[in-house]
Amino acid sequence: MSSPQRADRTSSPSDRAVTSLRERKKAKTRRTIQEQALRLFAEQGYDATTVEQIAEAAEVSPSTFFRYFPTKEDVVTQDDYDPILMEMLKAQPAGRPPLTALRAAFRTAFESMGAEELDKVLARTKLAISVPALRARTVEGMFATIDMLAGAVAEREGRDPHSPAVRTLVGAVMGVMLPALFTWVEQDGRTPLPVLLDEALGYLEAGLPI
Fold first, then answer.
1. Under DSSP, is residue 77 helix (H, G, I), strand (E, B) or coil?
2. What's the whole-model pTM score?
3. Oxidoreductase: is it a keyword of this entry (predicted)?
4. Do 86 and 68 share a structural domain?
5. Quick one: 203 exposed, middle or buried, by C-beta within 10 A (0-12, 13-18, 19+)?
6. Which H or E element spans position 186?
């Protein structure tokens, strides 16, 4: 049996290139499935659209669809933004207060998205608000996001992620972001989402002045 060092030495550039290509293909397939799903939802409604129709439009089999998205709800509620947000948060200076760091991380993460990507987020958010089954899944996703952010903040500050201070801070961040998202949807994206989110987090950072 080869040692880890031996395996590392025998891993060739071509092997790494194949792995990278495979990951890019998987990401492309996932993106295509989601794009076609959002198009069909807009054209014929969420409830009227089947997984089979989405798979056909994306030129994949239904079984392939389920490898990427366990349910139809997941094609709306799942995204790849958490790793981006975590990367931006880790890039914040160590001495920066946690709320300031979170605000800067959210602003940088959303500003890095192009117009097309933000249009997809807007479409998904509209669905998540309007479809009852998706609202329930969205709430589940929010709890997962709170856990993720609590862990990241606790790591930065050397605190317990389950401490009331950490959980309250992260909960407050999520709380002020929700009205910003609702405003964005009501305005049909007229005011850029990064602007609305940064404004909301700025109010929180200032102590929520009225």
1. helix
2. 0.80
3. no
4. no
5. middle
6. helix 164-186
